[in-house]
Design a protein that fits this description.
Elements lengths: L2 E3 L6 E7 L2 E7 L9 H15 L6 E6 L13 H6 L4 H17 L4 E5 L2 E3 L1 H8 L2 E5 L3 E3 L13 H9 L1 H10 L3 E2 H6 L5 E3 L1 H16 L3 H15 L3 H16 L2 H11 L8
Parallel strand pairs: 3-4, 4-5, 5-7, 6-8, 7-10
Antiparallel strand pairs: 1-2, 2-3, 8-9
Pfam families: ECH_1
Organism: Nocardia mexicana
GO molecular function, one term: catalytic activity
């Protein structure tokens, strides 16, 4: 089957048409697939373009190498600020990306290896079907750097698994192994690492040969039932995160993370 490179950003991710399947891969393995502002915008553009492309019948989202996505690339924050990228712009780009995945008219399959952290959790849970290696994990690490969850992550955890687990993940900022996440209903399935690709490929192929309009309407109905409060959550996150991104605690948390030391919050 022929493939056509359809990359929409010079760095950070690739999008390749593989017949009716669009394969979107975050390509920053040296930073464990952390994403910067430009990558978030480019990914959002890609999902929106795919929505208007009738040749796309399914989308597979993954990360290059051993991790899915470890959240925002804090090493890019200073340079982005110098370019005039504001916290509001960052939040809008994250919300736009998550919304584009949720609203995609074709099913999105997330393939998770290693870490899905920060906005990476939101991207994994925004997909319709999420398959993870059993040695991978989810981590809402925001509180560890003085922030709050964004990308609708906490809302999607609560919708799938309930408020108690969402509170534990968001307030404690600890890893949730994929096997436990699957047990709570956050993942479609956790699989042995050597079985993950076979499963994802089989699912993508079945979706790509399915009735596109029926799948679209089914997906829409499921999301209306389960994610009716997503826009409200995204708005609340934007307001809170804009404040926190300008706080001394975030500066301390981000610096401590980059310096690999424990943060001392006010």
């Amino acid at each position: 089957m022929s493939t056509t490179d359809h990359t929409t950003a010079p760095t950070g991710f690739s999008a390749v048409h593989d017949g009716p399947v669009l394969r979107v891969t975050i390509t920053n393995p040296k930073r464990k697939n952390a994403i910067d502002y430009d990558t978030m915008v480019g990914l959002g553009d890609t999902f929106l373009a795919a929505a208007a492309d009738s040749s796309v019948r399914a989308i597979v989202l993954t990360g290059e190498g051993g991790d899915f996505c470890t959240g925002a690339d804090l090493s890019a924050t200073a340079a982005e600020a110098q370019r005039g990228i504001t916290p509001a712009m960052t939040m809008d780009s994250a919300s736009r990306l998550v919304r584009a995945i949720v609203d995609s008219p074709v099913p999105v399959v997330a393939r998770v290896r290693g870490a899905a952290a920060g906005i990476g959790v939101a991207l994994a849970l925004a997909a319709d079907l999420t398959y993870a290696a059993d040695d991978s994990y989810l981590l809402l690490a925001f509180v560890n750097i003085g922030l709050m969850p964004d990308g609708g992550a906490a809302a999607m955890v609560a919708a799938a698994a309930g408020r108690p687990l969402a509170a534990e993940m968001a307030l404690l900022g600890e890893r949730l192994p994929a096997t436990e996440a699957a047990g709570h209903g956050l993942l479609t399935r956790a699989l042995p690492a050597d079985e993950l690709d076979v499963k994802v490929e089989a699912v993508a192929a079945k979706l790509a040969s399915g009735p596109r309009r029926a799948l679209e309407l089914t997906k829409r109905a499921l999301n209306q039932a389960a994610l009716a409060s997503l826009d409200t959550a995204l708005a609340a996150e934007k307001s809170g995160q804009i404040e926190l991104l300008q706080s001394a605690d975030f500066m301390e948390g981000a610096t401590a993370m980059l310096q690999k030391r424990k943060a001392v919050f006010s």
